[in-house]
Amino acid sequence: MELLPAIDLRHGAAVRLIQGDFAREQDYGDPEALANRYIDGGARWIHVVDLEAARTGVRHERAALDDIVRLAAASSVRVQVGGGIRTADAAAELFETGVARVVLGTAALEDPGLWPSAWTTG
Questions:
Q1: Fewer Cβ within 10 Å of end Cβ, the chain: N or C?
Q2: What is the DSSP string of 52-83?
């Protein structure tokens, strides 16, 4: 079994929505600091979700995600990302930033051909 610590991003912070309610969230502060704690704790993967992108389909947390990917890469930790990835171009853009895996939800159900197996980097 492999555990993937998760960082949900909203408005530049690491948060947890209480029962999925965007009006009720717990703030965990700086996402890069949280990623660093996970890496220091021995994480080999970090799972990141852009919550606003999950809701709107538009990436909002580019800077925070880029910081996490940079920090993880420097420690040989891989990052997988979910939230609002609804097109092959959106997935490809994330791979170009250094993300190793992309999680498709609704988009994969609506278009099962969206996910070419060749896209994965591990």
A1: N
A2: HHHHHSS---HHHHHHHHHHHHHTT-EEEEES
